[in-house]
Each structure stands twice: as C-alpha cells, then as structure tokens.
Give the backbone structure.
Amino acid sequence: MTKQGLDILLERVATWPLEAQEELLRSLAEIEKRHLGIYRLNDQERAAVRRGLQEMREGKLASDEEVAAVFARYRA
C-alpha cells in the first residue's frame, strides 16, 4: 500500500462507527507489538530456556571441538 492509499484509508476510518475504530486500534497495536515490540515468552518457551540454562550449568553442552567434528563429518 502506498502512502497515498494509507492516507485515503485513514480518512475513511474517521467515518467508521466508534466500535470499528476501536477494533482497528486493537489490531494495529497487536501488529505493532508483533513487529516492533518486545517479544514475551510463553510458559512453554520459558521452561525450555530454563532447561537449557540448567543443562549449561551442568556442563551438558557440546564443546566447540565436538560441534566442529559433527559438522566436519556431515560436510565430507
């Protein structure tokens, strides 16, 4: 959509019923949050991060050498 098209649409929005304008504002806020806002983890994602951090503290992560060996094996 061009700037001109957006301007025309915004002029029309001013004639919409208040309920429709409020719905548009909620939609725009959600779109902005998804594209520009801070990402909020859901409970499942938060648990996965905690598991990963715990595994890191327990030394369960592969070393750089182990990772390089795996990549070398599959590149050959």
